[in-house]
Amino acid sequence: MQHCIGVRREDKSRWERRVPVTPAAARDLWEQHGIRTYVQPSPIRVFGASEYEQNGAIVQEDLAHCPIVFAVKEIPSSFFRSGGAYMFFAHVIKGQPYNMPMLRRLVELGCTLIDYERVVDDQGRRLIFFGRHAGLAGMIETLRALGQRAAGEGVPNPFQDLGHAHQYHDLAEVKEAVTRVGEAIRRDGIPEQIAPLTIGVTGYGNVSRGAWEILDLLPVEVIEPDALPRIAQSPAASRHTLYGTTFKEQHIVEPLEGEFDCQRYYDCPDNFRPIFERYLPHLTVLVNGIYWDARYPRLVTRDALRALWERGQTRLKVIGDISCDIEGSIEVTLKSTEPDEPCFVYNPLNGEIRDGYEGDGVAVMAVDILPSELPRDASEDFSRVLKDYIPAIVAADFSVPFEDLHLPPPIKRAVIVHRGELAPDYAHLRRHLE
User: Fold this and answer.
1) What's the start-to-end Cα distance of the chain, in Å?
2) Residue 95, class by beta-carbon neighbours within 10 Å (0-12 exposed, 13-18 middle, 19+ buried)?
3) What CA–CA distance (Å, rounded) separates 240 from 191?
4) What are the φ and ψ backbone dihedral angles of 231, each rounded to 5 degrees?
5) Dihedrals phi, psi of 113, to nearest 5 degrees
6) CATH topology of domain 4-128+375-433
7) Would you write out the chain's pLDDT as a tens digit for each of its 434 residues?
8) Which H, E and C letters describe the chain, residue by residue?
9) Where along the chain do the CATH 3.40.50.720 domains lie?
10) How far is residue 5's CA from residue 185's CA, in Å, rounded to a whole number?
11) What is the rounded distance in angstroms from the CA atom of residue 71 to the CA atom of residue 66?
12) 131-373: which CATH architecture?
């Protein structure tokens, strides 16, 4: 068996320029572990073929001899070979219908699938992720949307000159642009038509931390959610400051009886009622970065927005839905968007949407591949973590039964299919396959 790995080209989206293994990581794998990296050519990858070749990788179409192939997004079923091993974001653990044919093909061919999404520590915390960069890019696109929305209403503002995240060379250049916006706010202030400017961020995980990394470059005063009504209604609030807050679980729901307990909420969500709507009238911008599934209440419903607009409470200008669950926690996220056209405007009174930034209602930013807007930085961070696991993955004998498969625990937890059989932790997917 070859002591090597393969890196497949990304072709799910024209925007997908990320890689799981960078040229620098390929060099380290060869020099430190004798593992050669074979990379398929790609016209859109952020790292060119010459960068890989200069770092000891081999660029060629055929990866059939590689015992394991890495990618970022889903791999087409036609690529799989009998008995092969693959590692990528599979998007199957919820039984997603659109990826069941792919999973079924992996089973039929006796393959092994390792899913980055399930590489977690003993506490269930993800170890290999793009979440931070989703937050970074998502906050940039949300602030830009605010700028374009206000400018379209005839309100010049310091956010309108921000570019899309993908238009900057790297994160450093992004931060320079945001820092200039912050300087303009300190110097000239925020237009009174959108002041005081209140921004709420949901959650406190990797996505939210990335969003705050951008927000902290601006003159922001951190407040508690319960202070929002006072700030939003205060004529004395500063026009040279943004007011930012973080929403945690206790701001989203309350128990039907007794004291709030976070773990009880996740275990028994039916014993809680949603309360987030009380904050909506006081927000200029909402940035959503939380995990959601149908067991839990929505953050923003169509009914809640319609009620606001019927009362004339139209402070909310932009929803940056970084999580981008279609009709999920943000019910008015009716579709995902592309990096070059990241927003649509949702009209709460009639339920219609209009692409762009203009129109009656609230702008919704719903790009579902936000980390791809910062492909170089996102790939470097991701690859730096993944690289440390690759020697053990390459050394593993995937021909043995699952119980004898020797892998680091976080990687073994992420094995969805092994030799064509669902791993014990994912046996529930059988009903979706059938």
Assistant:
1) 34
2) middle
3) 9
4) -70, -45
5) -120, 125
6) Rossmann fold (3.40.50)
7) 469 999 999 999 999 999 999 999 999 999 999 999 999 999 999 999 999 999 999 999 999 999 999 999 999 999 999 999 999 999 999 899 999 999 999 999 999 999 999 999 999 999 999 999 999 999 999 999 999 999 999 999 999 999 999 999 999 999 999 999 999 999 999 999 999 999 999 999 999 999 999 999 999 999 999 999 999 998 878 899 999 999 999 999 999 999 999 999 999 999 999 999 999 999 999 999 998 888 999 999 999 999 999 999 999 999 999 999 999 999 999 999 999 999 999 999 999 999 999 999 999 999 999 999 999 999 999 999 999 999 999 999 999 999 999 999 999 999 999 999 999 999 999 999 98
8) CCCEEEECCCCCCCCCCCCCCCHHHHHHHHHHHCCEEEECCCCCCCCCHHHHHHCCCEECCCCCCCCEEECCCCCCHHHCCCCCEEEECCCCCCCCHHHHHHHHHHHHCCCEEEEHHHCECCCCCECCCCHHHHHHHHHHHHHHHHHHHHHHCCCCCCCCCCCCHHHCCCHHHHHHHHHHHHHHHHHHCCCHHHCCEEEEEECCCHHHHHHHHHHCCCCEEECCHHHHHHHHCCCCCCCCCEEEEEECHHHHEEECCCCCCHHHHHHCHHHEEECHHHCHHHCCEEEECCCCCCCCCCCECHHHHHHHHHCCCCCCCEEEECCCCCCCCECCCCCCEECCECEEEECCCCCCEEECCCCCCEEEECECCHHHHCHHHHHHHHHHHHHCCHHHHHHCCCCCCHHHCCCCHHHHHCEEEECCEECHHHHHHHHHHC
9) 4-128+375-433, 131-373
10) 49
11) 13
12) 3-Layer(aba) Sandwich (3.40)
Which residue's entry shows tokens 């993944």? 386
d(CA 231, CA 373): 33
In angstroms, the CA 202 to CA 9 distance is 34
**Structure tokens that stand for 103 in this block:** 């999973």
Contact 136, 165 (CB under 8 A): yes
